[in-house]
Structure formats: C-alpha cells, structure tokens
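call fold(seq) -> tokens
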Amino acid sequence: MINFFKKRHKDLPEFWNSYEKTFDKKIPNELKSVRFVVLDTETTGFDYTNDRILCIGAIGLQNNTITIKDSLEIFVQQEHYNIESAEIHCILKKGKIDRVSELEALQQLLTYLGNSVIIAHHTKFDITMINRALERHGLPKLKNKTLDTDVLYRKSLLWTPLLDKKDHYTLDDLADKFNISKEDRHTAVGDAYITAIAFQKILNRMKYRKEPTLKDLFK
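ret:
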C-alpha cells in the first residue's frame, strides 16, 4: 500500500510534491506562530462545474500583522467569460493585464501557500473553485486547514453576546460592522485585505474572554 502511494505521487509534478512536503512540519497551536494566508478568488460565476477562476488574491498574516509584501495576485487566462460577472469584478476578457495559464496559477499559489492556514470569507466557494481547477489538471485537493470569517464572526458573538445575530454575514456586513474601507471591494486582493482586517478584529473580540489558540478557532 505504501509503495503504491509513493508510486502514485511520482507521477505528480515536482511543485505538488514540494507543496506536500511542507505539511511534514506541524502547525503550532499558538496563533502568533501560525502563518495565515487570507485568500479570495474572482470568478466568472458561481457554478462549480462550468465557471472558472479569473484572479486569485492572497495576503500573508502572522503574529497579528498583515504583511503587504507577503502578498500574491494572479490573473488567469480563461476562455470562459461571463459579461454579467464582469460588471462586478471589472476584469475584462481582453484587458491589458498580464495573465498566466491556469496550471501556472496553481503552481504559483501552492508555492506561496505551503502549509499555511487559509482564511477566506465563505471559504467553501473559494476552496471548491481551486480544487476543481486542481482536478482539471490531475492534481489532488488542497491540503491546507481552512477558516471562514463568517463562521468565526458568528462564533465571536457567542463570546461577547450582541443583539445583531444573523444566520450568515456578508463581507460587506463585516466591513460595515468593523468600519473597514470598501474602496477596493470586489478585487481579489482588495477582498483578501478586508477579510484579513476583519479576522484581526474578530480575534480581538475573542480575546475579551481569553487568548484564543488555533484549536479554539477550529472548535
């Protein structure tokens, strides 16, 4: 069984094997020692099967510090295009932005991610879109642990009870509640930055009760 596993992974590209090796190192439980990557995707739509990723934006966050230098923005070449979604993200089909192939974008993303904990708002969508792209190229799914700022915010309301509870919160909701500028809303890096600030605000709210650990965030 072990030999089969090793043989199977010999057929995968080296960038995947390098990414996978980063998970040999255990992720610490103290938040200040964890590298988070706050991630967002802009896509042609919301259909997991037919729509495609147009842009990936990501920002590193460690020890409660957003590191702008530790950021990533990738525009992806796609034949599929949806004029209606373009009105939101403003990524034109024939714009002058430098674009890379989907496979190259995935390689850049995995190299950047390593074993970091991924944070996104409504994480399921972004991760599923990336996993579908990986699948199209014969690659396994992402191995990273993930956190959702919508879920974390609702959890923080349990720690410091408020009256404005809802079943879910949009990124605009969190930006308004935490007074975060929405100037770059609906760009991948812009949304990642808003999400990163919202994550910091949520952690600060949780600290009123006790200093949270990574394990607390996943409970």
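The two ends are 33 Å apart (CA to CA).
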